[in-house]
Specification:
The protein is an alpha/beta fold and about 375 residues long. It contains twelve helices and ten strands. It has two domains: about 90 residues, no CATH class; about 270 residues, Vaccinia Virus protein VP39 (Rossmann fold), CATH 3.40.50. The longest helix is centred in the first third of the chain and has 31 residues.
């Protein structure tokens, strides 16, 4: 096989314009890429299967030395890139569109990094409340991971690190936890927490979930709590996870479930959109609900090479004394929303606080506000 071919997972077509283009009656609606290297119908969202795609089109032939080198390095596939490759192979897209998509991905990655750096101090301030809230999620993940004494466990997007620390206590002195986050500031937060807990079997590393700097088959378990949904390319991150995981061992993950089951965040987000402080999310954007669909999460896992996948919804409850308490928590921890809140004028912040009080009327309980939340958890091997 020529090295100029790029190994990439066939994308989930969250990009509505791309999907509609493929479905257009003006084009062959049943058109598919007839190549031994690409084997899925592009008239509907394809499965996440490995595909080899060359830069010069869809000719059904083996690659030759005349094929141009792709700008995507081998081992660095992206959902958007793969979808655009398929579109370009069918003559729908120009090379410039692919470059633009890649630039958008890189811009998103920089934004994620900057936000994580900015909210790390707030995350540390709110750590105890966060852990109290998501204890059911954390306990489910560690139980399903089933770490054993002497195991090496990797935690991705670890934040303050508490989920991984539960596993570290189980694997013991002969085992090891590798606690990672893309943000150096978050890694420092986790390091301080691990030191406070007296854990001596933890390595703290700055690491991107899309590019795991570990050898193949080198870990006995992987944890990722509310992380994959926010990476630019979850397919790449899950493929990397599968690569470093020893055969037969497990990945335990959580993402947020459907928006309607998580009013603790959607009420504020919709209000900020309505008042013009942020644009509505595009279907293709990574966000807290980008993997809320059980079908999509399962497809991503299976596309990454996991043979056994089981999912379960886990309920949590968010508790706040009053609207000011809610706003303080959101300001400290809510990622992109926190950045918006921090940029509000005092008058606008007061207006939003007042309107939130009205919107929260249905959640009054126990002398404050109580919001339901639901995560979608999965264990895969």
């Amino acid at each position: 096989m020529d090295s100029r071919c790029v190994a990439a997972p066939a994308a989930l077509l969250d990009l509505q314009d791309l999907h509609q283009l493929f479905k257009s009656p003006d084009e062959e609606a049943s058109r598919s890429v007839r190549s031994s290297r690409v084997r899925h119908d592009v008239t509907s969202p394809p499965e996440l299967r490995p595909a080899l795609i060359t830069q010069n089109g869809a000719n059904p032939r083996e690659p030759t030395a005349h094929d141009q080198v792709s700008p995507v390095r081998e081992g660095e596939p992206t959902d958007i890139t793969s979808a655009l490759w398929l579109a370009r192979a069918e003559g729908f897209w120009k090379w410039e569109d692919l470059e633009m998509a890649r630039m958008e991905l890189e811009s998103y990655r920089r934004t994620v990094y900057e936000i994580a750096q900015a909210i790390a101090p707030g995350w540390e301030r709110q750590r105890a409340r966060i852990e109290e809230t998501v204890t059911p999620v954390r306990d489910w993940m560690v139980t399903e991971l089933a770490p054993r004494s002497g195991d090496t466990v990797l935690e991705l997007a670890a934040g303050a690190g508490d989920t991984g620390f539960e596993a570290a206590a189980i694997v013991g002195e002969t085992g090891r936890l590798i606690s990672t986050d893309v943000s150096p500031a978050m890694v420092e937060v986790a390091g301080r927490r691990g030191t406070a807990l007296g854990l001596a079997n933890v390595d703290y590393r700055v690491m991107d979930a899309e590019h795991i700097e570990l050898e193949d088959d080198s870990v006995d378990g992987v944890l990722c709590r509310f992380g994959y949904m926010l990476v630019a390319d979850p397919a790449a991150a899950l493929s990397e996870t599968r690569r470093v995981l020893r055969p037969g061992r497990r990945l335990a993950l959580s993402v947020w479930g459907a928006p309607e089951g998580n009013p603790w965040i959607t009420i504020l987000a919709r209000m900020l959109v309505k008042r013009g402080h942020m644009p509505p999310p595009k279907p293709s954007d990574p966000d807290p609900f980008s993997m809320a669909s059980e079908e999509r999460t399962r497809a991503l896992l299976e596309g990454a090479g996991f043979a056994t996948v089981r999912t379960e919804a886990v309920s949590v409850r968010f508790a706040y004394r009053d609207v000011d308490d809610f706003m303080s928590f959101a300001n400290d921890t809510a990622g992109p929303l926190a950045m918006v809140i921090r940029g509000l004028s005092e008058g606008e912040r007061q207006t939003i606080t007042r309107q939130l009080g009205e919107a929260f009327a249905g959640f009054v309980a126990d002398g404050g506000y109580r919001f339901p939340g639901v995560s979608l958890n999965a264990v895969a091997s």
